[in-house]
Amino acid sequence: MTLPAGTTLGGIAAAQRPARQRAGSPTDGWWPWLFVLPTLLGVLVFYIWPLFQTGYLSFTETGPFGGETWVGTENYAKMLGDKNVGLALVNTVVYTVIVLLGIPVAILLASMVNRPGLRFATFYRVLFFMPYIAMPTAVALVWRMIYNGDFGILNWFLSIFGIDGPYWTSTPGFAIVAVGIVGMWSSLGFSMIILSAGLKNIPPDFYEAAQLDGASRWKQFTSITVPLLTPSIFFVTIISVINGFQLFDLLYAIMGSRNPAMQQSQSLVYIFYNQAFIHNNRGYAAAIAMLILLVIGIVTWFQFRMQKRWVNYV
Amino acid sequence: MSSSQLAQKRKTNTGFSPAQRGTNNSRAHIVLAVVGFIMVFPFLWQLIMSLSTNAQVMSVPPTFWPGELQWQNFAAVFTKVPFLSQLGVSITITVLRVLGQVVLCCMAGYAFARMRFSFKGVTLGIILSILMVPSQVYLIPQFQIIQNLGLLNTVWGIVLPGIFSAFGVFLMRQFFMGLPTELEEAARLDGANPFQIFWKVMLPLAAPGISALVIITTLWSWNDLLWPLVVTTYAESMPLSAGLATMQGSVSTDYTVMMAASIMAMAPVLILFIALQRRVIDGLAFSGTK
Amino acid sequence: MKKKNIARLAPLGLVAALALSACSANGGDEAVSTDSKATISYAVWDENQVPALKQNIADFNKEYPNIEVKLDVTPWSQFWTKLQTQASSDTLPDVFWMNGPNFQLYAANDQLEPLTGLIDDKKIDPANYPEALDTLYSYDGTQYGVPKDFDTLGLWYNKSILEQAGVEIPTDAWTWDEIHAASKKISDTLGDQGVYGMTTSLTGGQEGYYNSILQAGGEIISEDGKKSGYDSPEAIEGIQFWTDLIADGSMPTLQQLSDTTANVWFTSGKSGFFYSGTWIVSELSEAENTMDLNVAPLPKGERQATVIHGLANVISSKSKNKAASEAFVTYLASKEAQTTQAEMGAANPAFNGTQTAFVDSVPHFDIQVLLDAQDYAYPYPISKNTAAWTQLETDLLPAAFSGDKPVKDVANELATKMNEALAKE
């Protein structure tokens, strides 16, 4: 039953690996720049330059419509003493973790739905991708109705089992979890698109070999699908973390800005938005933006460092 | 082995032996059906609410079937939004963004995955860093750039920042890194230059990745709200997402009409997705190889 | 710190003033003529009012056929984000809607064009509009906005629920005691059907606690906009009014009101009373139970009081078509334009005497009650950075309404923090 590890699969991978370290010039000359330059220029103009402006603003006290005064690190000092910022960081992490829990589910579902010859596969795909297709504001509205403490179908469902459901979107603690579940629900389709593309890339010979060895489906899943899917899994993980840390739209649309639980449930980007566009405090908002960049940067850097341990590139 | 040979091999080979293909998938069906129902339930519920009265929406226990269907909730949407003209804007900006991203991201993604050049890590780091900043942060500076370029209220003004995508570059990089290297080596030995290798050998193999990028960019562009609202000033230059958001603001408490409006906002991409689903996901995977 | 900016800007303001006077010396006389050509933009947020606004533009074009007015409708949730982005890039729309909380911010930062010229030329007469609104849109003695419409508050009630619970129809003699007792009776009688006596939004002050604070004889902010009024015994009483209603079940909890907003409770026949304003008329007239609904004056506390607020049309100081914009705003300020708004049921117009058309637009409501409320109305409380302390209200007051903290403690904390915020303006 067991797959003779290191023979079939390992053999294929090992055979391919030396090919990468080919001899020749250390670089490919100017070709790479031809490929990269258009994107690089666009990114520099439309994103990096604004980012530098934001960095500058974070050291200023900025009027609502521009006109800034240099205040040094005052905004950063204020940020460190702002307990809402710490709370927002915790909320953001909780949300991100909930969304990440969706990835293993997406891997399983993607591998099932991509089974050759599975009937109704198209139908299932449509079901799974629907949440991802929907407009976020529209989706939030439906979930608000589902979560409604007095009239929502969720609490009605729970009441069948004798459970007295909470006011999901207006109770501190519950609210961020409720938003996280919607986040997981709506990103599952995204993960499945990426993972399905990755699955298409797995050479069929691997499965044939495994079958000849008599490996079970689960064994094939854990020793072929998952390892060879790791570049896609890595991608989905990174993007989910980055998106998770940028939680704003869903939170705003599901809870609303005047929710009594909002102060305990706000995310980092929510504080940024509130300071920049509601309180017209763009200097302080810029400092929070820099914090968001720093936190996501560290987490992403760490993930890239770790990828060597678990991501297989052919 | 040439690319077309490889494609041929893939086409005939589904990855499972005929024997296994016949095996029982019932457990998979149970799991997929249960999870699928959970995934789709909010939409069913939305559809039911859009055909109910407001009193039914607020009833306890829930009204699972409205009895008399309230189609006028949908009619109310049509009277409020210039649906067709905004649909045109939505389609135009989406097509331009998708084309732009596919070209730019495939090229850059390939270079980062397979080419060797100095400052590669730094360049990739710069591009990826923009992913880490929430889009609201860029809003005012990007608006000022578009204004200085004189592109306010134009299709290009809506499209422009969005054709450069760090996400797309990263996606295509990961995808290319997952592809086998032998083909490239073979082409290189045959004397092909890097562009020929990219265009003739690698791009066709990247079809599943490209189709994923196409789907994701289409949906993002279709649903994008804040940026089009800020760079356009008049209803005729707005896409559908912005038009429907404007409409929602006017019926903020009429749940049933809002549900109908959200269904209509989703409908075009949903129909497109269902119609092209096979072709996009399965077909594209082979079409590039002819 | 904000002062620093102002000081820095002061010389600029002077230059601007000089430039302006130079302008009026040169080109002031060549006021826009009926065949002037221009295109101006007009930014608004309420899709419901678009038909009436289009009618206004069409009528304006009868006189100025070559001034094209392009309507820019942005939903409320993105309106101020967009306006701030535009203001930061000197691309504000030529003419746009303004509300009380944002007005001083835009006026103080030189984004708005003074209307002094139009008033001096007798094209616009402030005496035509409620005084409270003229005051709302004046900054440092200069008028920047022409009132477009106005809102006061009333006590809306559901006749059928009142009847079922055996509660009398409210009269203009009602006080806090009557409304509380009546609400309690409804909740007690019909509570098993999920019906509450009172539902009112407590997320902002305008519908609920601003009114009760004023009725108790207190104030939200001092008249000069420099000091918080929250630490007065009257303000505390005004907040306590709502805490008491929630405490004995006369009113749903804040969480219930967050999940299901007050207007939805009311329009779906699950509440007997509802404090709301003129803006709710069109929504309630289209509700499924509209024939059961009507409005009475707000119950009195120590005195009779309501908040009055309204929108204004303002001109951007950076407009490239000021003459055309002024002509358009002058038209929007006219009796004719505001009557059109009223007749089409878009809004309760600000021009004195034109409101009759609005009253007649929904005959089964006593809308006159809301117009009469003008006589005892107090201006909506604002300062230069209103958003800073309304956020404090949103953050702090829920603990008082829910009874988690004593109202007095919360009010004092709110006053302290609000005074800090005001000191920074």
Automatic annotation (TrEMBL), chain A:
Keyword Membrane set for record: yes
Membrane-spanning intervals of the chain: 30-49, 85-110, 122-146, 174-199, 220-242, 284-304
Gene Ontology biological-process entries: transmembrane transport
GO cellular component, one term: plasma membrane
Topology versus the membrane: Multi-pass membrane protein
Coiled-coil regions listed: none
Keywords: Cell membrane, Membrane, Sugar transport, Transmembrane, Transmembrane helix, Transport
InterPro entries to which the protein is assigned, alphabetical: ABC_transporter_permease, MetI-like, MetI-like_sf
Highest taxon listed in the record's lineage: Bacteria
Compartments where found: Cell membrane
Span of domain ABC transmembrane type-1: 88-303
Annotated family: Belongs to the binding-protein-dependent transport system permease family.
Name of this chain's protein: Multiple sugar transport system permease protein
Origin species: Lysinibacter cavernae
Automatic annotation (TrEMBL), chain B:
Membrane topology (UniProt): Multi-pass membrane protein
Transmembrane helix keyword on record: yes
Keywords: Cell membrane, Membrane, Sugar transport, Transmembrane, Transmembrane helix, Transport
Pfam families: BPD_transp_1
Family indicated by similarity: Belongs to the binding-protein-dependent transport system permease family.
Species of the source: Lysinibacter cavernae
GO-annotated biological processes: transmembrane transport
Residue stretches making up the ABC transmembrane type-1 domain: 87-276
This protein's name: Multiple sugar transport system permease protein
Span list, region Disordered: 1-21
Automatic annotation (TrEMBL), chain C:
GO cellular component: cell envelope
Record key words, sorted: Signal, Sugar transport, Transport
Superkingdom field: Bacteria
Entry's localization field: Cell envelope
InterPro entries: Bact_solute-bd_prot1 (IPR050490), SBP (IPR006059)
SUPFAM superfamilies for this protein: Periplasmic binding protein-like II
Coiled-coil region list: none
Signal peptide annotation: 1-27
PROSITE patterns: PROKAR_LIPOPROTEIN
Calcium keyword on record: no
Family: Belongs to the bacterial solute-binding protein 1 family.
UniProt protein name: Multiple sugar transport system substrate-binding protein
Organism: Lysinibacter cavernae
Classification of source organism: Bacteria, Bacillati, Actinomycetota, Actinomycetes, Micrococcales
